[in-house]
Q: What sequence folds into this?
């Protein structure tokens, strides 16, 4: 077992009660696992210590056998002792492996520690609003995106259901063209204005990579997997992009690393029945442009503010009204220590829709991925990783249709998007 793959075991050993207190702010059962982690750790370490002592004894007795044989002495009794020591070492090996495997299983299922300044709360209703940008558009009797899409022939859900099933979307004509325009606009903004390197990554991912960023084993039921090949469809570009640097030792001057990628994302959305399932707001396959940064620990919280600003810049360039909330401890994602959600206003829904979640993971993912860098003193340190949607397409698409609708039902596209779409409006 390699405990560098998860939360630092030293934190458990040094102050278990503090660990429990931090985990309890998540309002889940993860704190209950701390004592078992320590019990496994103690069992494993005791077994390894005893094993080393016995190995020393065996080595000493083996030398003694050699000396006695050289003198023509009988060594049968000592050979039996050596054999018994070997069996005891084998038993200790098995005990250490069993305890180590259980410890690893437990550590992989314990979420990251919320940042000490993370707002305390149990549900999303307790997430504080920290910023509002722009004014809500004055749309009289707003239509929702489904009415507008039907008017302009943008979606074909019947064809999607025939091909695949419910929960999938098919875009037609101007609908597909708008999707393509948005992807290019998002990528160009992040690469040309915000300094990200564009990468084009595989959409099928190995299990080790899913474990590395924290999707597995916790969220297995939400993933689309292929048993035969041990591969998974990407739930988000965060997974393949961050794992580019898995098991690497970087030079300090290589950081920060900034990458962006467009991928389709695949999620079963297990347990989300009846929640925001209207139209394209929550579907099983959707497009997203992701932002990933790999940085030095001392820079990560400042970079979180920067990265959130890069996601915000999309909505500002499009002139869309939005707000930012900070996730409270009970609503925080599994791997995150601090997160901002950006929510765009959708007048046809009469509510805000999340289009970006920007998170700092500290060294949580880096430990699981064995991603390190050499600091100025020549010591190997774990990197910090961050990511954010820059942005997710479906809800951005909804917000554009609903915020930019005109009295006659046409969609006047934001000026920044018009060169990508090739026209000023739809309809």
A:
């Amino acid at each position: 077992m390699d405990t560098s793959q998860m939360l630092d075991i030293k934190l458990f050993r040094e102050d278990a009660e503090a660990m429990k207190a931090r985990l309890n702010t998540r309002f889940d059962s993860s704190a209950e696992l701390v004592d078992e982690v320590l019990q496994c750790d103690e069992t494993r370490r005791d077994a390894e210590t005893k094993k080393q002592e016995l190995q020393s004894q065996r080595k000493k007795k083996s030398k003694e056998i050699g000396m006695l044989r050289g003198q023509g002495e009988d060594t049968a009794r000592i050979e039996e002792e050596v054999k018994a020591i070997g069996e005891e070492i084998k038993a200790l090996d098995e005990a250490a492996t069993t305890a180590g495997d259980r410890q690893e299983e437990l550590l992989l299922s314990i979420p990251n520690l919320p940042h000490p300044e993370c707002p305390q709360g149990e549900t999303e209703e307790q997430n504080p609003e920290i910023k509002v940008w722009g004014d809500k558009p004055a749309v009289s009797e707003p239509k929702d995106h489904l009415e507008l899409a039907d008017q302009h022939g943008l979606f074909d859900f019947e064809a999607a259901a025939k091909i695949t099933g419910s929960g999938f979307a098919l875009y037609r004509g101007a609908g597909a063209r708008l999707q393509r325009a948005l992807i290019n606009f998002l990528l160009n903004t992040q690469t040309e204005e915000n300094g990200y390197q564009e990468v084009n990554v595989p959409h099928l991912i190995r299990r080790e990579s899913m474990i590395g960023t924290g999707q597995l084993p916790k969220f297995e039921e939400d993933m689309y997997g292929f048993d035969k090949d041990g591969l998974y469809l990407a739930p988000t570009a965060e997974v393949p992009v961050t794992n580019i640097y898995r098991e690497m030792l970087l030079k300090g001057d290589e950081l920060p690393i900034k990458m962006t990628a467009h991928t389709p994302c695949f999620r079963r959305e297990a347990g989300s029945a009846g929640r925001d399932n209207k139209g394209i707001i929550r579907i099983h396959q959707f497009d997203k442009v992701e932002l990933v940064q790999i940085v030095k620990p001392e820079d990560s919280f400042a970079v979180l503010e920067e990265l959130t600003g890069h996601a915000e810049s999309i909505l500002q360039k499009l002139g869309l009204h939005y707000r930012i909330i900070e996730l409270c401890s009970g609503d925080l994602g599994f791997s995150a220590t601090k997160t901002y959600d950006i929510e765009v206003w959708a007048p046809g829904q009469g509510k805000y829709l999340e289009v970006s979640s920007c998170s700092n993971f500290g060294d949580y993912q880096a430990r699981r991925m064995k991603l390190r860098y050499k600091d100025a003193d020549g010591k190997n340190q774990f990197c910090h990783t961050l990511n954010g949607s820059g942005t997710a397409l479906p809800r951005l698409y909804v917000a554009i249709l609903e915020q930019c609708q005109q009295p006659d039902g046409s969609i006047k596209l934001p000026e920044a998007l018009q060169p990508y779409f090739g026209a000023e409006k739809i309809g």
